[in-house]
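Quick one - first record:
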Amino acid sequence: MTAKRNTPVALIREAAPFAIRAERASDVVAREALLDACFGEDRHTRTCQRLRDGRAPAQGLSLAAVRQDGRLVGTVRLWHVSAGGRSALMLGPLAVDDGCRGLSVGAALMRRALAVAKTRGHGAVILLGDAPYYARFGFTAAKTGELSLPGAFARERLLGLELVDGALDGAWGMIVPTGALLSTKSRTARTRKAPFAVPHAA
């Protein structure tokens, strides 16, 4: 008698009522609504946004979490930066639908993003976020103390993770964007719907 080979897949799907996949063009409106709800409509004035304005995210590092019905419930992107002369990625924003709190959507997005970044040969990831939350993924302030952002920020929230040992050794100075410039396009339409969870990374 032939054993059923699809059982493990079914169990995985039941255990995780969401999936992590590459962001799609069709996700844009829902993603903008999610970010507006998490960060407020003034999010475009925040310090980290200056590293993203007019730039494309790092290739393969725009991820979405979606429920089984196709609804977007989480998002994360990573961006090319120079961290005091060291090539790195800046992670953010990370946002999760408040209705999915307790499902570890944020953790799943983080782990996938870091795994993809490492596979693609990136040496380090930097973010501005809550140290107690990001410590579980290996982020610390050990090598970011001499780095700065183009605007006001809380020093203790500037964290780094080396994917390659020594990638942030001697990092000093301003973090600046180095990603590909975007072509001029019409502004993305945004919607405002249900409440979302308070995000961890700006």
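second record:
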Amino acid sequence: MNGMKIQITAELLDGLVLAILKQDDYYGYALTQRVQSVIDISESTMYPVLRRLKKNGDLTTYDQPFQGRNRRYYQLTAAGEQRLQEILRLWEQYKDNLDQIFYQRGEQQ
């Protein structure tokens, strides 16, 4: 990623993680890679996010063996689905408000 970096809020990061997990379950490293494909974030930032989402009941985990070790998979819960819908609603409002300025829509003074 080149150029200006726009800061991402914790709420938006939560929304990205929840949206990815709505599509499929992911183990931590693969989920981090998926998020990193769209925003600049470190692996050390992702794991606290996952722990917080799990503590809040938005995610659950399960382990699956892989090459002699266990991989911890993250899965969206019903509460996480509801939270994602709320974040998406807030995002649409926020995006619409910014678009009014960026694209000069709405009332002019």
